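Hi all, long-time lurker, first post. I run a small reading group and we've been trying to get comfortable going from sequence to structure in the token notation. Rather than ask abstract questions, I figured I'd post a concrete chain and ask someone more experienced to write out its structure so we can walk through it together at our next meeting. Sequence below, copied exactly:
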Amino acid sequence: QVQVQESGGGLGQTGGSLRLSCTTSGYSGYEFKNFAMGWFRQAPGKEREGVACINFRGSATFYEDSVEGRFTISRDNGVSTVYLQMDDLRPGDTAVYYCAVYPLAGCSASWPRSSSANYWGQGTQVTVSS
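-- Answer (accepted) --
Happy to help. Here is the structure in token form:
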């Protein structure tokens, strides 16, 4: 089992910024640096959607179209943490944001689907005021 913990959510303003962090810990033999990581979000009444994915090394990143150019996913394998820097926030970004661990080293073509990740955090609320 892998434990996933997000932090950094809260209230932001349109055009402002927020930064989310996510740390993981797990079973003996689990190493954060070996797996791709992702951020998802779920707004009220909507399905959970993939926001960003980063491969194990941090050398490849992928984004959902609406956040491309505004959000940046990064990771520091030295402290087993993945980040989501959210700039130019919009009210449509309001959602619960979840950190997820993928079972692969890379971001597969199915990375935006919630079924492609196997461990999840509890989520952190992000609310953007207009």
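A couple of things your group might point at:
The chain has a mean pLDDT of 95.
The two ends are 40 Å apart (CA to CA).
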